[in-house]
Amino acid sequence: MFFGWFYMDWTLVFMVPGLLLGLWAQWLVNSRFKRYSKVRARSGLSGAQLAAALLADAGLGDVEIRVVGGRLSDHYDPRRRRLSLSAEVAHSASVAALGVAAHETGHAVQHARGYFPLHLRNAVVPATRLGSWLFIPLFIAGLIFASEPLVWIGIGLFAIVIFFQLITLPVEFNASRRALTLLREGAYLDGGELEGARKVLGAAAMTYVASLVTSLLVLLRLLFISGALRR
Hints:
Structural class: mainly alpha
């Protein structure tokens, strides 16, 4: 029964919209980042210099800034109070680089100001990792052994992953809003440059939306498969 389902699984059609949305979101972020990476900001500040200036403006001069490998691997680590910037962001004075650097600085400001969704997301990280590791093996084991409890445990663990993605959305959108406000109030970018940064950050936000939609479609697929098991 299980292997027949695996070979002739019509529920794969649920994944098509998520796949297309994900490909579009990735194309959008790459396209906009590439476009605005060619536009040099009039301030002449590099991404690392801008991040340092914004952190100082926010009274967060004790946050460490470091350069890391990888493309668009920029992130803020609240445990170490460390802002990591990829080389193409840290050393570039482009509008795209400054937008990304400001966004990550926005996360540091969220952390310092006690922004609740960020702290909630950080709190569920361990459970999310556990869920992402175990939901597939438990769900498949439930199908193989026709065990509904295992199937539902797998689905429940995947629901934790979806919850993490859901609370990530306000965190990311808020960080972008903070970034644009910091850039505008500090006059680090002018009107046209600010609009370019907004487009880059908006495209990046769409990747999180696409991930959530894809996960919801996966959940729908799992629910259909679990229903087939009961029948």
